[in-house]
Design goal:
CATH superfamily of the largest domain: ATPase, nucleotide binding domain
CATH architecture of the largest domain: 2-Layer Sandwich
CATH topology of the largest domain: Nucleotidyltransferase, domain 5
Distance between the termini: 26 Å
Strand order of the largest sheet: 13-14-12-11-17-18-19
Shape: globular
Structural class: alpha+beta
CATH class of the largest domain: Alpha Beta
Number of strands: 19
Helix content: 40-55%
Strand content: 15-25%
Length: 463
């Protein structure tokens, strides 16, 4: 919901409505399990990155907000003006407006009475686990993605937060695949989960997605293509960009890290296109897939610039975009299929641009590239992406890779696997391989270069 006391960019969860929604969902899952004569062995908690909760000393909510809460734009800009290099080298993440430190500063400046109550800054998933078990702790990858962790040492970034004048988490850190506690009676009554059911830390949703696709080895790269499409390359040490274009985070295992470069709202822009052009269709996405498949590579000169681009977190903001196609239309009638094809090609080009950026910064090529997430249901995009990359890619049979990864964390905690690496090895059996068409890849190489040039030219047009 929009925070009535904040700016138009403020967003804040109604905590009781969120809790009720979660309990309704878990209750449905429990009922389904009972009908299948199954039992719930554990509850795994993953969560949206950058979503945070500020709690008082008794664990009561002062604030719980989503990753799209941008109330702290000015506070974040002030942090970056004063401590950009220190913030990035410590947390692996900028701009600060997206992260917990800036939101804490916003409360300090605008709601000092509320700020005075804050004893703990944790993540949304940590808060959910707290409501389930009564045990307050924070999972390492999630804490890192909230900007609360020294990602190199995998400890709280207390020195940085002290310098910024804000409180920290002050709770234990736990690894993904660890038991947090057991479902307490009140939570059981709300959710339908049996009292005493173990609750397991599952980590950040993107890192869980990699695990669910079987990506856990050094130089494995995963793309979780849903609302956005972050690319994460697993590394044996933290890898930072010299100019802070990319993010550095922790992987689920305590000896591995990730370097991340994301094209932005790939799935979200495609949803917008569906809502705009196909709102009356019975199944818009099937119609779009069919239309796009009938249009040749290059979409007869139609280009889309709907947001997906090469990541540069050192310079974020609104920019111009849209569709471009040959005119006059008497000679070139671009239809809906052309717009969809161009949108899918643009998303694939953006993934390639971010892949090249990761390779350039890390100095290595991925040994595997695996794709999961909702966009994999669009078969034409998978075909385009494979040809644009010009490489073999692995594709998860189940698009819900973050949920699959969270399940593997739970099964590891229960002893089904000896380690998350063993769990990932099992998940690799769920991946199919897609090979590029060499002729299409050659054609797309030229189109990619043109898209890159046009993207650069559009940077001169500001909103």
């Amino acid at each position: 919901m929009i925070d009535p006391e904040g700016s138009t960019l403020s967003r804040e969860f109604d905590t009781e409505a969120v809790w009720k929604g979660l309990c309704d969902l878990t209750g449905g899952c429990v009922a389904d399990a009972n009908r299948e004569s199954c039992t719930v062995g554990a509850v795994a908690v993953t969560g949206q990155r950058q979503a945070v909760a500020f709690l008082d000393a008794d664990g009561r909510e002062v604030y719980v907000g989503p990753n799209v809460d941008l109330r702290a734009v000015f506070e974040g800009a002030a942090i970056d003006d004063d401590a950009r290099y220190e913030s990035y080298r410590t947390t692996g993440h900028i701009p600060s407006m997206l992260f917990a430190s800036a939101k804490l500063r916003w409360f300090l400046a605008h709601r000092p009475k509320a700020y005075a109550r804050i004893a703990h800054a944790v993540t949304l998933a940590d808060w959910i686990a707290w409501r389930l078990t009564g045990n307050l702790c924070s999972e390492v990858t999630l804490a890192g993605e909230a900007g609360l962790l020294d990602v190199t040492c995998r400890t709280w970034c207390s020195d940085l937060l002290d310098r910024l004048g804000v409180v920290g988490a002050k709770v234990p850190l736990v690894q993904a695949g660890s038991m947090i506690g057991k479902t307490k009676r009140k939570a059981s009554q709300d959710s339908g989960i049996k009292p005493g059911t173990p609750t397991v830390a599952a980590g950040a949703d993107t890192q869980c997605g990699l695990l669910g696709m079987g990506a856990s080895l050094e130089h494995d790269l995963g793309v979780v293509a849903g609302w956005s499409a972050p690319l994460q390359l697993i590394t044996s040490k933290p890898v930072f960009s010299p100019n802070a274009r990319t993010w550095t985070g922790c992987f689920l295992e305590d000896t591995k890290w990730v370097i991340e470069s994301s094209p932005g709202d790939v799935g979200n822009s495609y949803r917008w296109l569906a809502d705009t052009l196909f709102d009356k269709a019975k199944d818009a996405y099937i119609a779009m897939d069919t239309m796009a498949n009938l249009v040749p590579p290059g979409a007869d000169g139609t280009w889309a610039f709907l947001g997906p681009a090469r990541m540069d977190m050192a310079s974020v903001g609104m920019r111009s975009g849209g569709f471009m196609f040959p005119v006059p239309l008497t000679h070139s009638e671009a239809g809906r299929g052309h717009l969809v094809r161009a949108s899918l090609e643009s998303a694939a080009f953006a993934v390639k641009a971010n892949l090249e950026q990761i390779e350039d910064i890390s100095g290595t090529q991925p040994q595997t590239i695996t794709i999961g997430g909702g966009m994999t249901r669009t078969r034409t995009w998978l075909r385009i992406l494979t040809d644009v990359l010009g490489r073999s890619i692995g594709v998860s049979y189940d698009a819900n890779v973050s949920a699959a990864g969270a399940s593997l964390c739970a099964r590891t905690a229960l002893g089904d696997y000896s380690s998350l690496d063993e769990a990932a090895n099992d998940a690799r059996g769920t991946i199919r391989t897609v090979e590029p068409d060499l002729m299409a890849s050659s054609e797309y190489e030229e189109l990619y270069q043109r898209w890159t040039e046009m993207s650069g030219q559009l940077q001169d047009f500001t909103v």
